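hi! just following up on the protien thing from before. the input was this:
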Amino acid sequence: MTSTDIHQGSGGEGKKLSLTAKIMIGMIAGVILGVILNMVDNAFINTHIIGGLFAMIGKMFVNALKMLVVPLVFFSLLTGVTGIGDIRLLGRVGGKSFGLYLMTTALAIGIAIILALIIGPGNGFDMTGVDTGGIAGREAPTVWDVFAAIVPTNPVAAFANGEMLQIIFYTIILGVAVLMLGHRSKGFVEGCEYMNEVMMKVVTIVMSFAPIGVFVLIAKTFTEQGIELFIPVLAYVLTLTGALFLHLFITLMIMLKLFTGMSPFTFMAKIRPAQLFAFSTASSNATIPVTLRSVTERMGVDNSVASFCVPFGATINMDGTAIMQGVATVFLANVYGIDLGVMGYLTVIAMAVLASIGTAGVPGVGLVMLTMVLGQVGLPIEGIALILGVDRLMDMIRTAVNITGDAVVTTIVAKGEGKVDMSVFNDPNAGQIAEEDMHIDESVEAELAEAAHKH
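and the predicted 3d structure came back as:
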């Protein structure tokens, strides 16, 4: 194989499909196949194709993304902290991002509750035939417990268990110590920068398999759940989807425009790859590598800010999940005929914001958080059974909203610090990954070919 063979078609034969386009094709194909297979309902297909092959490939893809998270967060965050170079500037970036993340979460659940109260999902809901057994509640942590748990007793255990808040705390402390040592840390910082570049290359390799991973994940979801699960809770689904889209396209974009003056249309076009990843994996943490790449290479946000704000946001910023809790609370209050009152809904807002700080960005975590909220306002935990069937698909949408909120706050903080390259942001092709980007460099292949010839 020659370098000509490798790069064939990258010139005059037309432009190759971007990774985003391939992921979109895989997602649409997965929806179509999943709906068809759900209607066919063949035992062999369900067991061996969907439950076997597709489940295996989907799990491998998600595991590959999760494999990147801890080392990528560690090296990128450490590089970001040392790259900021000034401890006071680091405190300012951290304070701004924390405040903005809490504000967007509170806005999100507030909008969700207001919209749900207007629409009234759950009014007249028929509870006949609904199995409400087997749902275990979870006691809500106090604010003191949440903040105390941020400090790890064993950093190694925190890394092994993927405790993101603890990892972030330890990495920031380590980065501050490196800054305090001054020039003596030069070798260590260069090593971290090299490892960060290596991890980004690993991200590129994993991302090349994304269209296949997205295809099987979406196909499996729609085959197993189908469209008919939406019918009994259609009002809940429509209200939740409406609230998510309202926050995504209106609230967040208004914030972006007000705080930065940047184009929301350009922003949405460039964050699309991360949104597609978030939708397919339903995990904010698993999408960290793609979100980082989108905000740095596509939008021009400096890595020193992005590598701090993105992992931080994936851990504490749960706009989509907060919206689900608001809509679900109103829905279940209507179903059970319980009037929560103003104080009840204010409690829901406070609990959702608090829970989002101490909860990991992994699939299905929204339901765990919802048990805390329901327990605080006196609603039956068993009511979660009513929305279990549609939660997976809703989780996919709200995760896309979560990571969009992360990217918006990251961009706002970076713009305020003068850390955005507007020429990159305004370039529609900046950072775009096409098929030819995955090919081996010509000089590298020439060396490989020569080595192979000698042997």
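Confidence is low (pLDDT under 50) at residues 1-13, 128-138, 434-445.
Residues 43-84 form the longest helix (42 residues).
cheers
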